[in-house]
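Troubleshooting: if your tokenizer reports a length mismatch, compare your output against this known-good record of 561 residues.
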Amino acid sequence: MTRLPANPAADPARNAAIYFAADGYDPKAKGINGRRVAGESFLRGYLRHADAAEIVSLTPRSSDEALFSQMAIAERPALPHRAVALRNLHQMAPLGTLFYPSPNFAAETWRRAPFGHQAWSICGITHTTSTKGVMQGFYDLRMAQQMEWDAVICTSRAVLASVLHQFELIDLQIRQRFGGTPPARPQLPVIPLGVDTAAFGPDAAAGAALRKRLGVAKTDVIFATIARLTPYEKFDPLPVYLALQAAQAQMPKGTRLHLALCGIYRDDLSRKVFEDGARRLMPDVGFHVLDGADARERHALLSGADAFAFVIDNIQETFGLAPIEAMAAGLPVLCSDWDGMRDTVTPETGIRVPTRSLTAAHAEHEGYRHLTGTDNYVQYCAQASAMTEVEMPALIAAIVTLAKQPDLRRRMGEAGRKRAQEMYDWARIVPQMQDLWQELGLRRRAALTRQAIPRAALPVGPSPFALFAAWPSRQGGLERERFIATDLPHAPQDLLALRNYMAQGRQTERTDLFVAVHHAIRIAGAAGETRDGLATSQRATPVMVDRVLIWLLKYGLIRRI
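Known-good structure output:
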């Protein structure tokens, strides 16, 4: 496993602080899906291959920080790691970019606003773009404080076309509604996802053991698929079954085709569709389902299969990481001519089967029903899949071609391994991302200075006591008042423990400050204490002391005089 050494002289403009929440990077604990698998792969790849003097993490929770530290130490222990709290995001300096593992970073533009829009760049990345949340997120991004020195990495040319189409619709609405020019868009570079190609090197012994366990003869041909096993969110298996059964009829005597699926069923419906369909539609083809949560099973299948099949017909897919992994394992790829695979799988490395969908008018009702909540996401994806064709004759012909020509499979597999190493290893991808972050810094520094937005003036998140100023009888700080302690026989720490604000993870100030302020007022006796005097004696800001005093008044532990 190759790792770059730490480089104290590395340009910080080429580095980025990594926003890390376990949900985006931990498939083992949070559940396996493409976004988390890609997120974990990126982080490990970046930790190994970044030309950097340090790694900076931004985590919302202490548990996230502990997980990040664990991964950083495991992947590159010699590289210094610095953690920055989200409330002090400006402390990422001298790094000038925040990497956010999603395209939906509108909220991060507001977090930046009080520090000035040029304080840093924000770089997101696409995964699935078909959800209502992501589509709404792009709209929100254009309406937020997004700047041209921000970026959304598009992982394929197909994704770029999709994002540009939505941006055109959003910008049209901006012109029509506000009569003005839309703000500059973020940068939209196409940078593919990567893999650790060395991790997918085939294990001949594991592959042979798998074939023996499945009862696959040496003359048989296994088509492997590693994917989420859902007919509505990944691929419809029934056309694949029909094609395999038709191809089996063209096989020479003694050669049996097998389909080995390695994945996880989302629900009982998925299991029924996959398994009942296999029994009914391809009785002459071997059918095997392996545990997709077991990394050993995944590796054994890539080592023991003859070809990799990824016949996707679903708008949920955007890039297709699994075919890259299969190429790294030396397998030829049979895939649909679909989304990112149109970039990654070439005629030298596999066969892409033509696809066809209908026009925008044919599915405008599906888009509208999804938007307005009549249809859920599963229904939306399933309906789009039902109106998408993977050409059956071409699919059958591709299966037959690969099954009958072991030399072709070998040549394609060798070409695929070389292509994966040269184009999709993280050692090749990480420098492209670092080039982008450096470019964003140049754009940011060349732009005209833009004023910061004070926190209280953020239009989507003003202070609640500004937004709800009409609620109370009066408002104001406590600078003109004196306070004495009451004889209530309770300590602040006991009442705080009883109320237990920390069960929700937040308390207005530290418990020791509540205790210290209350003690200072109590020992002041009848003369009492002022807010400013308490601020001086406790080495706290007046705002902090006000936040403590209002709570002590609320609970009757002190009173005004």
